[in-house]
Amino acid sequence: MDPVLYRAAAEGKLEAFEHVGYPLDCCKTLSNNTILHIYATTLEEELESTTAFVITILRKCPSLQCGTNTKGETPLVHIAARYGHVKIVNCLIEHAKNYPHQDLESGIKAARELLRITNKKDTALHEAVRQNHLEVVILLLTEDMLVRLHSTLPSRETSSLWHSKFLKPVDHHRMIEELLKKFIDISKKADQNGWTSIHFAAYFDHQISAQLLLDADRQAAHMKDSAGMTALHIAADRGNNKVMETIISRCPDCCELVDNRGWNVLHFAIEGKGGKNTVKVILKDLSLSNLFNEEDFDGNTPFLSPFQF
């Protein structure tokens, strides 16, 4: 890539691209990073000019939205989501829905494809979760829910839902309640890594969301991801004690479940981020005392760890 254009992309200077005499998707680095890859990677703080740059570049060259580098990363899937650039993520999704498509159906299909793009295994949602970018996670989950709703609701109702979410803050608990009314088994729908809604609730310490999901279907607490982890394991590992208490109170027998290493919830509590207070959530319940001497698949009980009281 021309060094002047590279720096312009990094600094978000639109004027440098006004008179480029060839398609902007030809502006690539040796690793096939495009203008938007560079911009999203370099950006430190999202401002009003952030979306203006992205929108203008996409209008000039729409194909940049799904352009991948040599790692298979798109500007949305592995860059904007990874760095927590919620405005850019939203801008890219909106572009997929509204340009150059002439109808709602085509726009939703394009958005669905964008949300599902992976390099080999990870989507934008996986990247946002891994980097703890909650605002991006909520946006992506909301968009994904609306894509799913479109296949079952009348087009007029879907259109109203799709656009109204940008007019007022999303009430996530209310959204969960409405989704559970319409889709009884939605709490058991898993992504490519086996994560269900309650896995996310446990990860981000959303106690009320976890409560709503379990009240709708207690068996959701039994669902395991690809590593064999339940929502309770995740909450224990993260030190999210209120979510742990909610899950244990509604589904105490899920404490007996182990992951692919044979770890039970006490293993996770001892080795996780919550420290003594998380371990005490389990110790105070005498019905769980059987966990103290349960061995994992390597023969280690929870208290064989270096954890010290």
Automatic annotation (TrEMBL):
InterPro entries for this protein: Ankyrin_rpt, Ankyrin_rpt-contain_sf
Keyword Transcription annotated: no
Mapped ANK repeat ranges: 227-250
Source superkingdom: Eukaryota
SUPFAM superfamilies in alphabetical order: Ankyrin repeat (SSF48403)
One term under GO cellular component: plasma membrane
Keyword Hydrolase: no
Entry keywords, A to Z: ANK repeat, Repeat
Residue ranges of coiled coil: none
UniProt-recorded name of the protein: Serine/threonine-protein phosphatase 6 regulatory ankyrin repeat subunit A
Highest classification ranks of the organism: Eukaryota, Viridiplantae, Streptophyta, Embryophyta, Tracheophyta
